[in-house]
């Protein structure tokens, strides 16, 4: 084999591996971020029991808006109307009498002080009644949950069913977009297969870059792209085809009729599928760990 043929044979798999690894890592790592799902996607996650769901809508709007029946703090029934005269306070004590003192006994008309009743006990000698001790809560008693805090938060462990007409917001990983697509397609165990696809895209792409178990990850990425095309792109092309007869010609005409972004996504998925399939069939090339670890060593004759 000539030198240039060897370079071409080993350089092409290396370039394919670099392109696949960069693409899948770029789109795979953000799927581990936590985002907010709304609308039908949030309702689907609520039915699957995924993420932390919060009820929003009319109840939250009513709590956010101030009540119109509330009176302003500056004015009300207690405010004094203009022109109204202030009434004297009849309960006010005279200025010359100290507050809190009992009024002195007034002498009678003859100037004689009234005699004290000997049978009446002295008020100073009477002990005030003891107040009953207040019962303190036990130290090990569980704290009561706040109903206002948990009013709009749904418990994750309980099986839930999204009620029609109720708006939800769900905080979950961005990878749950794949779970939603698998669930709507009727795929069993959608969350498990979604995370298998995410780890294949990230871990598989990283190992494919260094060329370790390249054929295994090439097959996995090809299957992932096939599923992505079948779940995300193919339904839109089928909707554009309509109920008429199928076939390759009808498929291509429908592909041309759909949105340009859908067309770009379809060809992008096709190219990734073919590149991963080439790695699976042809191998990673000489610039890989697979070539160093698993190459066949020929014995001299």
Q: What's this, in brief?
A:
The chain has 301 residues and is mainly alpha-helical.
List keywords for this structure.
flat; 47% helix; 301 residues; mainly alpha
Can you walk me through this structure?
This protein is mainly alpha-helical and 301 residues long. The chain has two domains: 161 residues, no CATH class; 55 residues, no CATH class. The chain starts with a helix and ends in a 7-residue tail after the last helix. The relative contact order is 0.17. About 12% of the residues have low confidence.
Q: How many separate structural domains?
A: 2
* Radius of gyration, taken over Cα atoms and rounded to an integer in Å: 41 Å
| End-to-end C-alpha gap | 20 Å
The major pleated sheet works out as: 3 strands, antiparallel
Are there runs of 5+ residues with pLDDT below 50, and where? 63-73, 75-86, 148-159
Helix-strand string? HEHEHEHHHHHH
Strand order of the largest sheet: 1-3-2
**Residues in β-strands, percent:** 5-15%
Mean pLDDT: 76
**Helical segment count:** 9
């Amino acid at each position: 084999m000539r030198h240039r043929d060897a370079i071409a044979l080993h350089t092409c798999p290396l370039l394919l591996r670099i392109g696949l690894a960069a693409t899948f890592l770029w789109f795979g790592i953000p799927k581990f971020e936590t985002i907010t799902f709304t609308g039908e996607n949030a309702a689907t996650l609520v039915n699957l029991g995924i993420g932390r769901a919060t009820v929003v809508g009319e109840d939250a709007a009513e709590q956010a808006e101030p009540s119109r029946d509330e009176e302003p703090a500056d004015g009300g029934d207690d405010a004094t109307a203009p022109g109204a005269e202030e009434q004297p306070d009849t309960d006010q004590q005279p200025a010359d009498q100290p507050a809190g003192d009992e009024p002195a006994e007034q002498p009678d008309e003859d100037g004689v002080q009234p005699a004290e009743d000997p049978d009446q006990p002295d008020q100073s000698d009477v002990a005030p009644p003891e107040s009953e001790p207040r019962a303190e809560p036990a130290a090990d008693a569980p704290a009561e949950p706040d109903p206002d805090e948990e009013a709009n938060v749904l418990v994750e462990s309980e099986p839930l069913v999204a009620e029609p007409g109720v708006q939800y917001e769900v905080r979950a990983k961005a990878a749950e977009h794949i779970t939603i697509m698998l669930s709507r397609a009727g795929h069993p165990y959608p969350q498990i297969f979604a995370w298998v696809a995410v780890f294949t895209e990230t871990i598989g792409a990283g190992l494919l870059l260094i060329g370790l178990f390249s054929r295994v990850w090439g097959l996995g990425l090809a299957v992932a792209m096939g599923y992505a095309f079948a779940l995300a792109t193919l339904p839109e092309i089928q909707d554009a085809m309509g109920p008429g007869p199928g076939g390759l010609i009808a498929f291509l005409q429908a592909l041309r009729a759909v949105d340009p972004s859908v067309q770009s996504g379809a060809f992008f998925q096709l190219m990734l599928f073919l590149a991963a399939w080439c790695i699976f069939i042809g191998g990673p090339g000489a610039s890989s760990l697979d070539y160093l670890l698993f190459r066949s060593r020929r014995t001299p004759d």
